[in-house]
Structure prediction request, 380 residues.
Amino acid sequence: MATHPEIPEVSDEKLVRRAQRGNMPAFEELVGRHRDKIYARAFSMMRNEDDAVDLSQEAWVKGWQRLKQFQGESSFVTWMTRIVINLCLDQLRKHKRQRAESIEQLEDDLGGVERQMPAVTVNPTEGLERTELRARIDKALGQLSYEHRTVLILHEFEDLEYKEIAKRMQCSIGTVMSRLFYARRKMANLMMSWKREQQS
Amino acid sequence: MDTELMLKLQSWVDGELPASEAARIAELVRTDTAAAALAAELRMTRGFLAGNEPEVKLPESREFHWSKIQRAIERAEAEPRESLPWVAALRRFLVPVSGLALVAFLTVLSIGIFNRNPSGTGDELLVEEETLSRHVDTTTYNSQANNMYVVYIINKDVVDDDPMDLDSDLDEDMDDSVIQ
Prediction:
């Protein structure tokens, strides 16, 4: 890969302006800088390495094609993250249409037992190293349904408001609130159960 | 605590509850132990998630990842570009409209042709219809001036013997000539 020697010193904004004029090496540098973040977002939503690689690649291609539409209202990486999120949501919707709705799935959407559980009053993450905490969060995310996980990611990691999440997920604000509530409760309870396991 | 109240409590924690309701929920959290415990749990969950998103690395080298993207971009640019959205919308509108216009034009044209007759009055029409039946022929006569529409149904089996039927005579002559 022939990276221009001066490019690593250049800001994202300048690289974007160059890339908007058709400068491919500038875009290549942007990909190099943010590829892990874009892949990580795709992986957090899809929970599958191959899907995440394909979708993050597709996001970069779309990013290049739509680069002229980028006006700089947000940072470039935020804009790219929105693109990959939309691609993941499209893909997840396709998967969902393909699989039959089971009673378990419906119960999962509605929250099931999480509503009945008593509140977790002790912080289950206290004393954990950051690496261990992240590993447990990752494990817990993997145990959520994709609807719960996606709402949680969009709210907690992307800082989107209920209204914006509802728009992206094509559901009502009430559904977003309900999914977020049960996702958080399940997360807290999973973390608590692992803490208890560790103590015993 | 019912589900609606729990969701309002969450909205309050997230700062998304309208001010008109926020005071009521704040009071509930202050006075109700279960509400206070739930609010604390929701805040705690937000707290440990914040800034602790799992770190994942792309399982491909920078060069390999870029080479795939570059190839995909080149492939996409080599393909014919998609039409602009407004062009596609216009096309979606124009295709059925032009189809309808064509049908209307042909209808008007055919009416004009069939309404023309040698006398020049243009209001009488004699048409022999082609039928699939071997036994029946139909002929229609339409006179707009007399407000009349007549359909002749002719039994071919009977007409074949009619001396006025030139076609059948001709057929017979030809058959005769072959025999001779």
About this structure: Residues 160-180 of chain B have pLDDT under 50 and may be disordered. Residues 120-179 of chain B form one domain. The two ends of chain B are 111 Å apart (CA to CA). The beta strands of chain B are 124-129, 136-143, 148-155.
